[in-house]
């Protein structure tokens, strides 16, 4: 349960530690946001505690209470950070339960609160253990997928390399065949030229005779 000291710093409307508390003419203090929301709902400027009408539409900030609340929160946070277990920010109880609906840790007071009405709870140690198993399984699956992806990347790279080498070999073979054909064509051209010259020479000799 919350300590008696903490109750001294609780807003009577939201029942949480005061946030920007304002000071009403009736001497009651309320969170500024809580008061504004209350006034908007009721459509009248009255104190949420004693219902006394407030003459000031903009009540002043209760600086003393504000500073006390900030000091209290600072000290409480320091106490929590020095402990091994997390503490409920609403009730200052150890977070020993886990709400399955809200997916968040809860204390024994949260368990009985209206906010978690009809919600299912599990011991937080049990949930943490389950999450650790799930994380381990997820990590193993990711590792297997990474191995598979690496294998596929290696296979793809090897296939691309083989195709490039095959393409280069085909290009080289085509180049060699073209060069060979050019040599044959060149040789044939020379043969035709020589034959034509021989025929011309024969014709000249024939005419002279």
UniProtKB/TrEMBL annotation:
<keyword id="KW-0863">Zinc-finger</keyword>
<feature type="domain" description="B box-type">
    <location>
        <begin position="83"/>
        <end position="124"/>
    </location>
</feature>
<dbReference type="InterPro" id="IPR000315">
    <property type="entry name" value="Znf_B-box"/>
</dbReference>
<feature type="coiled-coil region">
    <location>
        <begin position="153"/>
        <end position="198"/>
    </location>
</feature>
<dbReference type="Pfam" id="PF13445">
    <property type="entry name" value="zf-RING_UBOX"/>
</dbReference>
<dbReference type="InterPro" id="IPR027370">
    <property type="entry name" value="Znf-RING_euk"/>
</dbReference>
<keyword id="KW-0862">Zinc</keyword>
<protein>
    <submittedName>
        <fullName>Tripartite motif containing 35-23</fullName>
    </submittedName>
</protein>
<feature type="domain" description="RING-type">
    <location>
        <begin position="11"/>
        <end position="51"/>
    </location>
</feature>
<dbReference type="InterPro" id="IPR017907">
    <property type="entry name" value="Znf_RING_CS"/>
</dbReference>
<dbReference type="GO" id="GO:0008270">
    <property type="term" value="F:zinc ion binding"/>
</dbReference>
<keyword id="KW-0479">Metal-binding</keyword>
<dbReference type="Pfam" id="PF00643">
    <property type="entry name" value="zf-B_box"/>
</dbReference>
<dbReference type="InterPro" id="IPR050143">
    <property type="entry name" value="TRIM/RBCC"/>
</dbReference>
<dbReference type="InterPro" id="IPR001841">
    <property type="entry name" value="Znf_RING"/>
</dbReference>
<keyword id="KW-0175">Coiled coil</keyword>
<dbReference type="InterPro" id="IPR013083">
    <property type="entry name" value="Znf_RING/FYVE/PHD"/>
</dbReference>
């Amino acid at each position: 349960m919350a300590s008696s000291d903490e109750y001294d710093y609780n807003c009577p409307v939201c029942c949480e530690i005061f946030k920007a508390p304002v000071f009403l003419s009736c001497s009651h203090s309320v969170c500024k946001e809580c008061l504004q929301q209350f006034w908007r709902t009721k459509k009248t400027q009255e104190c949420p505690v004693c219902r006394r009408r407030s003459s000031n539409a903009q009540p002043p900030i209760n600086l003393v209470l504000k500073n006390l609340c900030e000091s209290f929160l600072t000290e409480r946070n320091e106490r929590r950070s020095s402990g091994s277990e997390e503490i409920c920010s609403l009730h200052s109880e150890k977070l020993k339960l886990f709400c399955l609906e809200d997916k968040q840790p809860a204390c024994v007071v949260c368990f009985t609160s209206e906010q978690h009405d009809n919600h299912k709870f599990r011991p937080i140690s049990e949930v943490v253990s389950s999450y650790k198993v799930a994380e381990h399984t997820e990590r193993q699956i990711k590792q297997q997928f990474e191995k598979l992806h690496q294998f596929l990347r290696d296979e793809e790279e090897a296939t691309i390399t083989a195709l490039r080498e095959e393409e280069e070999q085909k290009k080289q073979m085509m180049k060699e065949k073209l060069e060979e054909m050019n040599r044959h064509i060149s040789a044939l051209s020379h043969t035709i030229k020589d034959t034509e010259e021989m025929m011309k020479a024969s014709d000249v000799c024939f005419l002279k005779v």
